[in-house]
Specification:
271 residues; alpha/beta; Arc Repressor Mutant, subunit A
Length: 271
């Protein structure tokens, strides 16, 4: 095979995803959401984490084009190493801790200001309205975006919005979305390198009639046309690939607006 990258492995998995068995999809979902960790796990450990047998994990590796599990793990390990070694290409600021902190802080302020200035208020209010009227809100993000998905779900649940974070478990993402309806909202986080897995999940949610919301960094991302509403954020960073400051502000703003609406709704119920 050609030189392995995490993007290439993801593409290999997604190209065969529809042909995978139910249990093989559990393996695929786990690996797609935990690539770094999976590169250092044994076949038994991966099987245990996703509720699949050793044989299923081996067949999964063979189905996506590897000779077996060892060949697959070697490729994944190489891809993960390449990803982290590429971080050396990010410019160093200086040897001063204070200068580093100042540079990062200035970039974060810039990200937040640019995000606020370009924010589509009609879309923002539309998302608030959808979530307020929904039966349930679901959130999903692949890779590092999964963290933002889980933070949003936790925040919304704390203010009284029934929210479920779709994560890699013994159930595939497709199984977790089995009972989606037109009364549900699914919020997807999608950032470079724009996971095909996330795009396919958004397409499935849309097919089930759920309202799809996308939070991304690019208007030309393939997931955007699938959305009812979309919001875009700036997330450049100084030393590492992505920043989550502006995304966190957006999450806090969405949660705060919904908190106010829910309090007003509860007061009206008491009257």
């Amino acid at each position: 095979m050609n030189e392995m990258t995490t993007e290439r492995i993801e593409a290999l998995i997604m190209s065969k995803y529809k042909s995978l068995s139910r249990n093989q999809r559990k393996v695929a979902d786990y690996i797609l959401n935990n690539m770094n960790e999976s590169a250092f796990l044994s076949v038994v450990e991966i099987g245990t984490k996703c509720g699949a047998s050793k044989a299923t994990v081996v067949r999964f590796a063979q189905t996506i084009g590897f000779e077996g599990f060892i060949d697959f793990r070697n490729g994944l390990h190489s891809a993960v190493q390449t990803k982290f070694s590429n971080m050396d290409r990010f410019p160093l600021i200086s040897n001063s801790d204070k200068e580093t902190i100042n540079a990062v802080a200035q970039q974060e302020v810039k990200n937040i200001n640019q995000t606020i200035e370009s924010l589509n208020l009609e879309a923002f209010n539309g998302i608030i309205n959808l979530c307020n009227k929904s039966n349930a809100v679901y959130t999903f993000g692949h890779g590092i975006s999964a963290l933002m998905s889980q933070i949003l779900a936790l925040s919304l649940n704390q203010v009284g919005v029934k929210t479920i974070s779709l994560v890699s478990t013994h159930m595939s993402i497709e199984e977790q979305m089995m009972f989606l309806s037109s009364n549900d909202v699914v919020i997807f986080f999608s950032f470079s390198t724009y996971s095909q897995f996330t795009i396919d999940a958004a397409r499935k949610a849309s097919e089930k009639g759920a309202k799809v919301v996308v939070i991304s960094d690019a208007k030309n991302s393939a997931i955007v046309p699938l959305s009812t509403y979309n919001l875009f954020v700036q997330h450049e960073n100084v030393l590492i690939p992505n920043s989550f400051a502006a995304i966190s502000v957006l999450i806090n703003a969405l949660t705060s607006e919904l908190s106010v609406l829910i309090k007003e709704k509860n007061i009206n119920l008491i009257k």
